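Morning!

This is the sequence you dropped in the shared folder:
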Amino acid sequence: MFEYLNHKITFSLAIVFTMLIISTELQGQNSQYQHLRTIIFNDSVIDLTDSLTIIPESIIATLSDSATTNIKHQLILNKILISPQNQLSAGDTINITYRTLSADLYATRSHIDQNQLKSKDRAIYIGYEYSPFDTENKNALIQSKGLDYDGSFSRGFSFGNGQSLLLNSNFNLQLAGDLGNDITIKAAISDDNIPIQPEGNTQVLQEFDKVFIQVDKGKTRLIAGDFQEQETDSYFLRYLKKLKGLKAAHTVDLSEKSYVRTGGSFAQSQGKFSRQEISTSEGNQGPYRLSGNNGELFLIVRSGTERIYYDGRLLKRGIDLDYIISYDRAEITFTPKTLITKDSRIVVEFEYIDRSYQRTSYIAEATYVNGKFSFDTNLYTESDSKNLQQDIQLDSTDISILTEAGDDLSDAIRPSINLYDGDADPDLILYKQIVESTGNIYYEYSTSPDSANYLVSYSNVGANNGSYIIDTESTANGRVYKYVGENLGSFEPIKRLVAPQKKQIMTFASQYKATEQRIIKAELAVSQTDLNRFSEVDNEDNTGNALSILYDDLIKLDTVPNGWSIAPQLSYEYVNKNFLTINPYRSPEFSRDWNQIQSNDTLINNQQIITAGLKLQKAKSFK
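The structure's back. Tokens below.
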């Protein structure tokens, strides 16, 4: 009972205190709470609103020319309403005086944060849970209710007897959500202080050291970071590239059945495409090593860019599927699901990391669709910089050799023999020069400080094309080469010079779809290929062109839904011998099927192919 009386007395004191404040406000009004408004009547309801609480008894509304004429009014919250029922005329001037309190009593106020109220489903309804000490998401990395993100950030160090203190770092962030104003974002950012390649024993790869940010607004998309470009709609322009840069796309609707789609990208690429056939042996599942276009034996294959064909059939990567691949060692091993024999035809298409020059890619595309008709144009440019070398260093002699070599780089070589005049170093592999009585000069490994005066590097020139072999009996801490005689080995003390290249192809394609089954397609392609940007020699064969026309139809012979029909097809293809694509567009089995001799899609003569076919078929009915 005492507790009840205590609450009642407290409540009564609060009311008395509030009334005392209001009474003080009413009695102590000064000029800043006295208001005068002059309004011209215009045959409509007058709506006068104040931001403070209006005292009802203080309102006086009169005509300006008759201060004794009171005008009826109505007060709703902080709003004064004067209706036309006062027999006012348009143009009458009305004076309204009133007083206000120093605060708005109708404003909503709360002593708790409503965002901290949480409703939870329970067997017994208890309203909302409130915890003023809940700091969830107050220290979030990104303060936005429309974004969902997850990730990790770590720092660490390692040390040991044989190494110094090493700092390790790792960062991983996935982000998706709405930024407002119809803008959405998706991002995946991962970084590791050790750049490693994903393992090639699964069908889906987990990428490391990747930055991907995608922003969408309506029908506009912007991508920044690491992304993959692939073209499959064009007949001649086929590519699969992993790039790092910017990509944009936009679609404009012209009508219900027509639109224009444009896009483009500017990026850097470190991959070089290669297609090669693997010589297999009976019962040997691997590993089989890949090599580069210039005979490079030690490659790093770009993860996810390989396509392996077994007798024309595309294989799938995975330890429980067809093959696994080691990207760091460029080695392929086939699983028992794909048995390898000496007659197996294995064709591998892949991209490997080439850091000779900084390579830039430009891609632009546009598509116009209007009902049954469509038109496409694509431009792809891949160019090596002549001035920005990465892993190679060219001097004036190297550039002079490349300038005179033209497109044939077989003679773009120079001796890789350098005189060493530094201090003795047991970790260096040094050679001494030996001159035979016949005048033949060769180099032999030596540890004598008096004669070991040469630093020599060797290049693989193929079996029985060189004079040196690898000395497998040497105990030196490094690879040593031994002279065995002219054309008896596979290595020579030379350095092959690599020239910067430029590839460009532009396509124009149109399609008319008369019916769902009757389609007419045509595509024209023009290529510009410079195999040596340092040289003007052999530039007359840089430009090539190609044309493709296709007619495809399906004609029903009766009106029965699953009846007989014929499918005629007619195609024409012309390819200039100088035409070169970015990636091969023909099947790996094309040369074998047509008994053609060509390498790397390079033609000996112009080609014209005309194909015609007629298929009689009956649709299957399923019950």
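Headline: Residues 1-11 have pLDDT under 50 and may be disordered.

More detail when I'm at my desk.
O.
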